[in-house]
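ENTRY TYPE: paired fold submission
RECORD: A
CONTENT: sequence, then structure tokens
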Amino acid sequence: MHAELATKSRVGEDPTAELYRLRLQADVWQPAADEFFAVLHLQRGARAIDLCCGAVGVLEPLSRAVGPSGTVIGVESNPVRLKAARAFVDQSDLANVTVVEGHAVATGLPSGQFDLVHCRFLFAPMGQADRILTEMLRLLRPGGYIAIQEPDGSCWNVAPRNANWSRLKAAIFGAIRAQGGDFDAGLHTFGILRAAGMREVSQRNAVVACHGRDPYKQLPLQFANWLRPQILDGGLMSEDRLEECMEDVITTAADPATVMTSFLVTQVAARKM
């Protein structure tokens, strides 16, 4: 399923690195997304939203879930990701999918018209859970589903254990906290939906193990390059220590004898009253 492990020492040197990360992420978690939508038993012809879909998101799994007579709208505010998502839809011939420009907390889409409103890895980097949930509920019709996929970093690790790998993970978590997010957002979404008065709140979890030369073993490097300014400016690591950790993680990721267990992806769904 995945391309061979990249050989570049710094993912951040590639100007398309973030799009690569998002495409790889969509590839890795696509089976889990298909399973998640299958248990929701969406009707053919349903109308669905993928909020902040990024470069790929779950547009393809949602397209399959709602069928040719259904419609999927991807919402994205970042212009580079927006362009990439539209190109992906065209290249994949997803005739029932449209990608529009809009913000997670102010999509501009009509109220109460959608059977499913979904987001993945949005609460974690962005925070603002209350504002995001308010917009999701506004878009959703009575009886429709909210579906939220967020990480729980408790099991994200590498074996054999590596001290610099753990240091880099801690810096990533700290950088996300510093910008108002929470890498462990998936620990809270079940409770958030219960507190919001949703019904039929349920949760399932997904995890993957990456071994050999699986490129997803590079995920800490990709995150660290994405968050490099926050890590350095926030004093979470010196530049020398960051480089040392990243070089060690490069070696660890390339070693076919190591295995990375991903973070959990908590898949929480509920119906609107």
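RECORD: B
CONTENT: sequence, then structure tokens
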Amino acid sequence: MRSALIVGAGIGGLAAAIALRHADWEVQIVEQAATPRELGFALALAPNALAALDELGLRHVVVPRGVEVKTLEVRRADGRLLKRIVMSGAAVQSVVLLRPALHGALLEAVGPGVLQPGCRVTGVESGSSAAVVTADNQDLSRRTPADVVVGADGVGSVVRRALHPGEPPPRPSGYHALRGVSENVADRMGGADAVVYLGDGVEIGVARASASAVYWYISLLDGAVEADAAAALDRGLRGVHETPAGIIRAAAADAIRLDRLWLRAPLVTWGRGRVTLLGDAAHPVLPHTAQGAAQALEDAVALGLALRGGDIEAGLRRYEQVRAARTRRIIQSGPRIAAMTTTRSRARIALRDSLVRLTPARVLATTMTRLAADPHRALRG
């Protein structure tokens, strides 16, 4: 049986293990952390993410663990309603859930004996018939061969650095993000499942993530961010309506995370030989796209399809070609979206608010499914 070694046990790495096992591969995952965990608190799964989970056989497990977004509101920061969108029909448009719920479902599907935590990868080599990973585990260094190595080790990917040693470092995007979860405040959401507040240099989102928890984020311009999360929170909530402000301030200090957001240019080529990349290691995107987890899940499905049989290296290059074309557009869309949602430009704010107010709700609802068309048709032949 062909073997794959996956570096990283985040959403993308675990999903890739499931997809490759469906394609009759033997899979091993190595993870630097002593305990597998998913950074962050919650996430939104767009329709294309749900479609990928369906292909992995997990949609029916994951969806009940979150909250389906049936009613979405867009408001000004002062609370004035710009648009209310009600999703019609029984189809699930998107789901918001706590990250441990998705990560836990993936871990359960992977099962025991596959994941090796506390294993720090220090090097990757690709030969003509196998790839080799060098890793330190409990002060012992060892070399592990595999037919394929998948770098799913996030934005600071060791595998990416080995493949592209001359690549320039990430550059600042111009934005920071505050993200967190507030418990026991879901009753303050009123009749909406998710609300986006658009202000002067700030975008805020709040969404039900469970029966009692609300996931929230604040997008801020770099120049408006103070030294720590508490100060940045005060700045982000200045002049914001009391409802979202109250929800956000209910979060415990250890349930808030402040990140500077970075950009990387899309890679022309992802992998080499028997080594490839997946998820944020290949294509980090701004959170404004709401596509980080979705694209990692899509990568996993695509990798499984590309490696169902035949020449391994040809399959890897086909996977990369299809996924690079898809993810390049999403990488490039992030700064454009952020420039409209998080801006201090009077002209852009006026244009943004007018577009939201004047565009029919059914048209806005349709844009949420723009990525739902099958992205893997080229790999299904």
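NOTES ON RECORD B: The chain has eleven helices and 18 strands. The mean pLDDT is 93.
STATUS: closed
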